[in-house]
Amino acid sequence: HPNVSQGCQGGCATCSDYNGCLSCKPRLFFVLERIGMKQIGVCLSSCPSGYFGTRYPEINKCT
């Protein structure tokens, strides 16, 4: 992945310029936000209203 960087914002462990967060720092939840035609990954300390947090060994997700 050519543009994966470590200089990520907001709790991302890895990210890309196009897709935002690809993975999160420990204990944070990974959420996909739809912006127009693309989806951006964000890492949050808790899930947004209406979402349910699920913790997996490799990632925590909001569904």
Provide a descriptive summary of the structure in words:
By secondary structure, the protein is an all-beta fold. The chain has one domain (4-62): Hormone Receptor, Insulin-like Growth Factor Receptor 1, Chain A, domain 2 (Hormone Receptor, Insulin-like Growth Factor Receptor 1, Chain A domain 2), CATH 2.10.220. It contains no helices and seven strands. The chain has strands spanning 4-5, 12-16, 20-24, 29-35, 38-44, 53-55, 60-62. It has a four-stranded mixed sheet, with no helix packed on it. A hairpin with a 4-residue loop joins strand 6 (53-55) and strand 7 (60-62). It is globular, with a radius of gyration of 11 Å. It is found in: Secreted. InterPro entries: Furin_repeat, Growth_fac_rcpt_cys_sf, R-spondin, Rspo_Fu-CRD_dom. Residues 10-63 form the R-spondin Fu-CRD domain. Keywords: Disulfide bond, Glycoprotein, Secreted, Signal. Its main location: secreted.
Residue fraction in strands: over 45%
- Pattern of helices and strands: EEEEEEE
Which topology does CATH recognise? Answer: Hormone Receptor, Insulin-like Growth Factor Receptor 1, Chain A domain 2
Q: Distance between the terminal alpha carbons, to the nearest Å?
A: 26 Å
Overall domain count: 1
* Rg calc: 11 Å
Number of helices: 0
Query: What characteristic shape results from the CA principal axes?
Result: globular
| Main sheet makeup | 4 strands, mixed
Just give the CATH class. Mainly Beta
- Number of β-strand runs: 7
Fraction of residues in H or I helices: under 10%
Please state the second-level CATH architecture: Ribbon
Q: Mean pLDDT score, rounded?
A: 89
Main sheet strand line-up: 5-4-7-6
Query: How would you name the CATH homologous superfamily?
Result: Hormone Receptor, Insulin-like Growth Factor Receptor 1, Chain A, domain 2
Helix-and-strand structural type: mainly beta
Spans where pLDDT lies below 50 across 5 or more residues: none
